[in-house]
Design goal:
single chain, 355 residues, mainly alpha, DNA polymerase, domain 1, hpI Integrase, Chain A, 2 domains, three-stranded antiparallel β-sheet, two-stranded antiparallel sheet
Length: 355
Amino acid sequence: MPGRETILRLQPTADIPPRMLLREPSEPYRSQPARPPGPPRLLDLVRRAIRARHYSPRTEKSYVSWIRRYVIYHGRRHPRELGATHVEQFLSWLASERRVSASTQNQALCALLFLYREVLGSDIDWIDGITPAKRPARLPVVLTRREVRAVLAQLTGVSWLMASLLYGAGLRLMECCRLRVKDLDFQRAEITVRSGKGRKDRVTMLPAALVVPLRAQIDRARIVHRHDRANGFSGVPLPGALERKYIHAGREWGWQWVFPASRVYADTATGELRRWHRHESVLQRAVRRAVLASGISKRASCHTLRHSFATHLLESGTDIRTIQELLGHSDVSTTMIYTHVLNRGAMGVKSPLDR
């Protein structure tokens, strides 16, 4: 088994120096300090509308960013004073001057649609005349089995374990980072993914090859948990209103992160010391270095391991509907893209030169 890396940086039992505390993570359920009384600002209204619809924190961050750029681009004029022409100008500027991709341009359009429809409640029949950018059909990057082994061989410790889960269970990056102890079922060899893409739960496989290293990782997480309890920390954050419904659940063992961060952070709203999960950028950098060290010329990333998981299952004869459920795709047409990258040549046809 690859070597292990130490993830613990236990704090002393005395007061923790401020330099040892991380700032509040970018997505810890969006607690914000109270603002002085007054009329709500536009972006505050946007945030309220997004949270009322239970959109993800990343969607909120993206929409707020695009609306801010839109307002700044038009000289900080209020969107009520702007119309279809201004929206088209902004989207054209993104494509021609900023040279953004079609998907990025459509993301900006979705943010502006949300602004006018859901926040401002404007009559925007004119918006239907704006045609979304056409996204080119692109195939995912997929590694061969030998290339996957080469990449994993360059990783050690927790980074190796997390990357192995991405490939062995088909997890997305954040789904792996957010795993909690209660989500692992060793008896049934299952991993329960909570609030995946589209806020959907699903069940995927727990590879037998990872049972022993996962148990060892849980033992290390238990040491971190005991240290936090001994020092009076407030545990881990809980999703939604569970923090209020189950006051002490954040200190319970089942809710702890499988991959806890090495440091605690101070909640900006309450001042409590909590522990977040391992930051996704740590694994992203590790995988990128591993790809370069293995000499692979493909532009591979953490998500490439998930693509490889689906493709290799198809090559092994697994039913595509089963793969759809394991990946958490809403439509089988999304899963069908992996049929185009099977390791059988273009469309499975044999070249006449090979005959």
